[in-house]
Amino acid sequence: MRIISTIALVLLHSARALAAFGYTTSGNSIRVDTGGGLVYDVNKSNGDITSLKYNGVEYQSNVKMSAINSGLGTSTVSAAMVNGYVKITIKAGGLPVTHYFVAKSGDPTIYMATYITGEVDPGELRWLARMRKEVLPTGVHMPVSEIAGCTAFEGKDTFKCSNGQTRCKMYSSDRFIDDIVHGVTGTNVGIWMIMPGTAYETSAGGPFMRDINNQGGDQQELYWYMNSGHVRTEPWRLGLMGPYAMTFTTGARPSGDLDTSFFSGLDIQGYVAKSGRGTVSGSATGVPSKFETVLHWYNDKAQYWTKASGGKYTSPLMKPGSYAMKMYRGEYPVASSTVSVTAGGTTTKDIASTESNPSVIWRVGEFDGQPFELKNGDKIERMHPSDSRMSSWGGTYTVGSSSSKDFPMALFSKAGGTATINFDLASNQVVATTLRISTTLSFKGGRPNAKINSWQGNDPGAPKLIDSRGVTRGAYRGYGEQYSWNVPASALKTGRNTLTLGVYGSGDAEFLSANYIVDAIELQGPRGANSPSESDSGTPSSQVSSQPVQTPSPTPDPIPTPAPTPEPPSGGGCEQKEWAQCGGVNFSDCKTCASGLKCA
Fold first, then answer.
1. Which pTM was predicted?
2. Residue span of the signal peptide, if any (predicted)?
3. What is the DSSP letter of 483?
4. How far is CA 488 from the centre of its chain?
5. In which region does residue 491 sit, left (phi positive, over 0), alpha (psi from -120 to 50) or beta (all else)?
6. Non-local CB neighbours of 595 within 8 Å, separated by 6+ positions
7. Rounded (to 5) percent helix, strand, coil in the chain
8. Relative to the CA of 239, which of 83, 362, 453, 492 has its CA 20 to 30 Å away?
9. What is the pLDDT of residues 330-389, one digit of tens each?
10. Which residue from 129, 151, 133 is spatially nearest to 142, judged by alpha carbons?
11. How far apart are the C-alpha atoms of 52 and 91, rounded to whole Å?
12. Residue 15 host element (H or E)
């Protein structure tokens, strides 16, 4: 009888827990029971979540609450049953924010959306759940953002532990294009952020933007960053962020394919249903198969992306409008266009790489907008450059015998020293050449200082400033500056030559000094024994320069405009071939390019 009674009590308790969908109001609190094992409380004065109980266990911290940013302050909070769903609306009194919580019967998920009409002080917009560390000990990419027992040494957010390892909440980040689900876990529980479908459409930064997901300290903090000033490359977008969700499981990672179409019947400000959207589809060609082909659409209202497969793509459901369109080789832009989207329609748009294939003597790295194949590139997203697990910075690379892992992914003006590339030339390669360096991110004005043998390349000038720490907080992507120099034949010699790379710029001490992150380096000229495969030798023609200049990848324009038509050559009887000098300070020789070329 005792065993039967116990079972009966357990069944009764479970039935009560799973059968009470709805909300109740008591004092200053709104309690939502999802009927799926999750019960949560919302403060009626400010919209904070003050309790998160899942299967009877409290996960909400009692020290700091869960909220947008660190709380919206005094707000108007209301609850209602709408078409069978619980909808809580929070209108902030002092901020341009309206936030929504939605509950669905039998589903242990807090569905959310956040509507903004202006930038939010202090310059960022995030959902932050602060939960009990003792029942949720495992964070995102554990232990990269686990700061307990470690000491802050750079700002207030970057920590060093007694074993020389480093921690920072930025190290928990993943690219938006890949970050659909992330979460924290404990015994028989997982709490997960899900950003399904077009959740990122009103965020800023594009497909390769990364931002904070987690920090483990006194509490276990779970984030979704919608906008911030972290390595910011474009203005905020305004409107509805989401829908997105925080869901509870018994530990398993949930699918990112979360249906939020029921939001269309909830009167959510700024929500655009599927019927009010359109798509773009077509072919995407010209990117070698070893690289991802990424498509990106953007204007000042929205942004979208997808990855091509088999040379074909279909966009997510997009809001109507005119968009700039880019195609990337990995993260490196290789084509651009414009496209218009109409509600209920599908626009066909084929796009092909505009890369040329210059003759290349040697190359270090890949022109893919990423430094991962270079030395320390496999670690930089998850640790500080000073971390004890990092290899030494600087170093020597020898063309023909070294691997990419021998060349540093970043150079600093006051740490790590210079990097050198030794290369041999045959007599037919001692001609005027072009040195090209692609970088992905600059800090404090850092840019390449290039010297080949006794020849010194000109200072290309400081790139556009991003007012945010980059490489020390795991970031590698900014505007993506492109540099090239004409190297005269007199600078080269048959046999061994040496390229020395340093940093123009100053900045602060060590790893906070002026720096830049390397994507790839190549010397363009007659092919030889160490030349890369011609199929991999793409160079966007719009980014090749015959002068020592840096050309940042443009910030997405508020209103996309078609690429300009190249100007025809001016004539005059002479003609410069590809890679020949065609202009510059005190240059008085022929300035007319051969057919199909443009002087840059």
1. 0.87
2. 1-19
3. E
4. 38
5. alpha
6. 569
7. 10, 40, 50
8. 83
9. 999 999 999 999 999 999 999 999 998 899 999 999 999 999 999 999 999 999 999 999
10. 133
11. 22
12. helix 2-18
